[in-house]
Amino acid sequence: MPASIEHVSIGTELLLGDTIDSNVAFAGRALSEIGVRVERRTTVGDSIAEIQDAIGSALDRTGVVIACGGLGPTNDDLTRDAVASLLELPLDFDDSIWQELVGRWRKFGREISDSNRSQAMVPRGATVLRNRWGSAPGLWVESARGIVVLLPGVPIEFEGLLREAVIPRLREKLDSAPIHSRRLRTTGIAESKLGELLGPLEEQFAPITLAYLPDQGGVDLRLTAWQLDEETAQLKLDAAEQLVRHVAGQWIYTSGEKDLAVVVLETLRANQLTLATAESCTGGMLGARITAVAGSSDVYLGGVVSYANEAKQELLGVSVETLERHGAVSEQSAREMALGVAGRLGSDCAIAITGIAGPGGGTADKPVGTVWIAWFDRGAVNAKRFGFAGDRSQVRERAVQAALAGFVGLVGLVGKASG
What we know:
By secondary structure, the chain is of the alpha/beta class. It folds into three domains: 4-173, 3-Layer(aba) Sandwich (Molybdenum Cofactor Biosythetic Enzyme, Chain A), CATH 3.40.980; 180-255, Alpha-Beta Plaits; 260-407, CinA-like (Maf protein), CATH 3.90.950. The protein is 39% helix and 24% strand. The strands form four sheets. A six-stranded mixed β-sheet has the order 2-1-3-8-7-6, with helices on both faces. The longest helix has 19 residues, at 155-173. The termini are far apart. Mean pLDDT is 92; it is low at 411-419.
């Protein structure tokens, strides 16, 4: 069989936006590691007709479908029945599954409901995939129309079964070669600008493909080698990466999945330095981003959230004159915040952020999105003004990213020291 499949997610809650479907992203990554390409993803509601239409159409195209969701014990869990009917397979009661369910409930001191008996119904001839993370077993169903894999929608159950039970079987069934990819993380440059720089070079990447993956923090560049052996793939990826770095290297802060906060912490450790933060408009988001990294306490001393002017004065030593003359959102205030928190906590380095995140509070001189960031490093202070687009959340997230990026000296983000 060809190394391509389709993924069908089932659940009205997914269509309504009540639940975020993280399973599709996990499946795409996990399957690409074994050379299986997800050709299409479809989401349908809790309707037998919709489920059958989605899975039937997918089988016609690729012959292999992974469907997640709809295997629970309630009336809206219809996947098992829909697939059995579609493939014209009767459902048989599996007493071994039922006894496992009874034992599971008893272990937690509860009596199982008769409605759970539906979870012990198995399309005739299907392989039961034991679920040690939850109650609903997965099912591997083979028929004349192709292979349908039914997995529960709960992420921990879906991920565990996909890794342990499904991927080994797909390796045996599908003619695949690993998909090799490499991710370069950039910040401080727009996706459109990267496209202008790299677009003319993409023909030179062949057979490597280049994808642009933007988010609030920046744009990730994913280089992918399809259907190549390990040695050839790595050589081709090396050549493509060299081209990318030649053109856009000044905005690249790491290769791989590493967060920018990790790069900042590694920089601090390498130079045996400590860091403190002072925040106003970001309200502690910078400190949270740093402390989300395990082990950050060896170099990160702490932070001060000085939202009100009084807090800037009392906790950080920002002068009344500075606030009255230049305002809280100014180069002078940002610089004094950075100096103040470094002195207060005794750190070698400091980052300070002050700005107008919106939606109100902007003026002609300082519109919404205006942010001043200052970086203190062993006596020297750099500061730069930014104008971030977006809503309140986006302005704050972009300010934090710029603050981290400026600390590690990415070109175009840190202004020259003034004064």
